[in-house]
Design brief:
The complex is a heterodimer of chains A (66) and B (414). Chain A has a single domain, classed as Alpha-Beta Plaits (2-Layer Sandwich), CATH 3.30.70. Helices cover 21% and strands 21% of the residues of chain A. The model of chain A has no long low-confidence stretch (mean pLDDT 96). By secondary structure, chain A is α+β, with helices and mostly antiparallel strands. In chain A, the strands form 2 sheets. In chain A, strands 4-1-5 form a 3-stranded antiparallel beta sheet, covered by helices on one side. Chain B is an alpha+beta fold and 414 residues long. Chain B has one domain: Orthogonal Bundle (Cytochrome p450). Helices cover 48% and strands 10% of the residues of chain B. Chain B has a 6-stranded mixed beta sheet, covered by helices on one side. The radius of gyration of chain B is 22 Å and the shape is globular. Classes of the chains: A alpha+beta (66), B alpha+beta (414). Chains A and B meet through helix 1 and helix 2 of A and loops of B.
Chain lengths: 66, 414
């Protein structure tokens, strides 16, 4: 699975990185990092990735299933 | 110029068949929970309504439509955010500024309330929480809303701004008086004006105190604003005072409101309380669930900036719309068991902090305040109940909702 954040609609809610701490972090303004690139999701973090995507109030996270 | 009456006729004539007309004035206090019941009923009756209240405005009740409203500021302007008042005399910054200018002001402020900044003051926030709980615990009872829920966010807010948290003694009554009048109670208007004057006067004095500093003070938000520029110009006193005042009015009463509902839930649901005591790592998801299910924003207004067709409604420039956030956050099209409080609900994309460019700037701080409240309270007062012989009441949905009081009792350690 790959995870991408659509930078153009992310508004820094912070839901994703609080639910997927192993995958995502944040910058000084509270926006998710990394962004603008596809992130490989390890098998043991697939649930976290799904929770992050399902919890984004902007719908800014896309998951690409393998 | 058309008179309000003519304008009302004009808008209402555009209401298509299939868009029910209601007359809903949500400004009066109701029994606690009644606003969410109303929101559920409206959402399941129709995705869109025309409300003939005030000059008349469109109401959108479901998640997708509310989110779309938030995400399209080019159509839905924040020039007015109160649908019954399309041309407000005030202009909150950055709340009522549209893109692209909005970002210039927002960037100044948002870093101060970002997660790193919130983490920096968390040890102090916990200390404040511990002190307030320790003061209350021996009493065995309190009005949670007045005695704890207002005091905690106020002290933590003043800490992050960089002014003495003991000045909460001033801010708590100011904010109480302001919101007593904000809902429209005419008898409270003088007290509301005096409260606003007190808040502005406080920040004026803070500005004066810092104006001749040789260098900006560290961890001091007023000093930061004084030394900031937008478009190569200093902000100026008037704008700085507006920003500081808006933060006070947007941040303290709202957190109080959310805390009241969360603690009402914990008082009435011992199993959820026990679970959070046993598994404190679930506190953040419980806080998030309370923001979804007990949303204090009945709805949020926007002003239509261009003629457009929106989900079957012919919107004209100047019309007002109202996104029913309370309806969206319990939309069964999005949430399983939407009226159930699921302590560990992980997939939770609620709009309790709004969305789009105006997403609540204080969201990270508000969450932390709520987490601290639950952690510190449950450590000392694990069991508590509501003692009220009459039903709890909540403030009307015209402003942000809050329980008017929440009398709690517990067994005080002797």
């Amino acid at each position: 699975m790959k995870l991408t954040v659509d930078v153009s609609i992310c508004r820094g809610h912070g839901r994703c990185y609080s639910l997927a701490e192993g995958l995502l972090s944040y910058d000084e303004d509270g926006y998710v990092t990394p962004r603008g690139e596809a992130i490989d999701v390890p098998a043991d973090q697939v649930d976290d990735a799904r929770n992050a995507a399902d919890s984004c109030p902007e719908g800014a996270i896309d998951l690409l299933e393998d | 110029m058309t008179s309000p009456a003519e304008e009302r006729t004009e808008i209402s004539q555009r209401v298509p068949t299939g868009c029910p007309v209601i007359h809903l004035d949500a400004s009066a206090p109701l029994e606690a929970g009644a606003h969410w019941e109303k929101a559920n009923e409206l959402r399941e009756t129709s995705p869109a309504f025309f409300n003939s209240h005030a000059q008349g405005y469109w109401v959108f009740t479901r998640y997708d439509e509310v989110r779309e409203m938030y995400q399209h500021p080019e159509i839905f302007s924040s020039e007015s955010i109160t649908p019954w008042e399309p041309d407000p005399v005030y202009r909150f910054v950055p709340t009522q500024i549209d893109p692209p200018d909005h970002a210039k002001y927002r960037q100044l402020i948002s870093r101060w309330f970002a997660p790193s900044a919130v983490n920096r003051i968390t040890p102090e926030a916990q200390e404040i929480g511990r002190r307030l709980v320790a003061d209350l615990a021996p009493k065995g009872e309190c009005d949670f809303v007045a005695d704890f829920a207002m005091r905690l966010p106020t002290e933590i807010f003043l800490t992050i701004i960089g002014v003495p948290n003991s000045d909460a003694d001033l801010f708590v009554p100011w904010v109480e008086d302001f919101f007593a009048g904000f809902g429209g109670d005419l008898e409270q208007q003088a007290a509301m004006g005096a409260a606003l004057g007190g808040i502005r006067g406080y920040w004026e004095a803070a500005l004066e105190d810092r104006r001749h500093d040789p260098a900006p003070r560290e961890d001091d938000f007023v000093s930061l604003l004084l030394n900031s520029v937008v478009d190569d110009e200093p902000l100026g006193d008037a704008l700085i005072l507006d920003i500081l005042t808006v933060l006070v009015l947007a941040g303290l009463d709202t957190t109080r409101g959310q805390l009241g509902y969360l603690f009402r839930h914990l008082a009435e649901n011992p199993a959820d309380r026990q679970r959070l005591i046993a598994e404190p790592e679930l506190i953040p998801t419980a806080v998030e669930e309370s923001l979804r299910m007990y949303t204090i924003i009945f709805g949020d207004g926007r002003k239509v900036a261009q003629d457009t067709e929106f989900h079957g409604c012919p919107l004209s420039k100047g019309d007002m719309v109202y996104g029913l956030v309370s309806g969206a956050n319990r939309d069964p099209r999005v949430y399983e068991n939407p009226d159930e409080f699921v302590v560990d609900r992980k997939a939770n994309n609620h709009l309790g902090f709004a969305g789009g460019p105006h997403r609540c700037l204080g969201a990270h701080l508000a969450r932390r305040v709520m987490q601290v409240a639950v952690e510190e309270w449950l450590k000392v007062i694990p069991d508590f109940t509501i003692t009220s012989e009459t039903p709890l009441m909540e403030r009307g949905g015209g402003a942000m909702m809050t329980l008017l009081s929440l009398p709690l009792t517990w067994e005080a350690a002797s």
